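Example 3.
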Amino acid sequence: MIELDGVTKIFQSGRGRVQALSDVSFLLPEAAFAAVVGKSGSGKSTLLACIGGLESPDSGSILCFGTPVHRLGGRQLSLFQRRLVGFVFQRGNLLSYLTVSENIGFPMTLNRVDAKECKKRIDELLDRIGLASAAGAMPHELSGGEAQRVALARAIAHHPKMLLADEPTANLDSATGREVTALMREMGKDFGCTVFMATHDTEIVDAADTVLYLRDGRLRH
Ligand code: ADP
Ligand code: MG
């Protein structure tokens, strides 16, 4: 379960003070397939970043599976991110100097999954995303859709409790976006993983069980 209570985030920059999130509260059940939508600048990425511990809120609390993310720092935060979270971004997810297999295996190596199990999971995931033949390919040899499928496999390989995806289909054509959305949904269900996506994509919005609407950092009900 992901539970936010009164989350507020303010950025101070050369452009002045921006309240990116204002008093955001909601609850997502375990294994939800949820989306947050809103115009550019409405606070979607900031919301995901706070939940994943990449940003820390100025006030309010964030509980992810019992862990108070807003209070974590240093090693505890790294362990939380490494074990419980999978991230997928719009682009640039893959390490350019590692093969597809090595990219998928990377978070398992960090989590010290033993080599045999790691290999087994990589093979299963490659099958699952329909890229068994691309195991040894380098990221620059992949299409955008293939790269996002690999990013998804990598994000879920260590069996995280939640997958945070920031506009994962924004650079894909609609048919490919639909495929990636379907894969996220299936894999989330099969791995018992909560999936939370920021998006503009109506395909994702239609597929989601829960949709949250943000406007100027506030949740619309
Ligand atoms: P979205 O993902 O919905 O486009 P963001 O969460 O990226 O929205 O941004 C919300 C608001 O916070 C915007 O006004 C943006 O300019 C501002 N913002 C986001 N990140 C930063 C930052 N690191 N420094 C200053 N302002 C930021
Ligand atoms: Mg964004």
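The longest strand covers residues 16-28. The beta strands are 2-13, 16-28, 33-37, 59-64, 67-68, 85-88, 162-166, 194-199, 210-215, 218-220.
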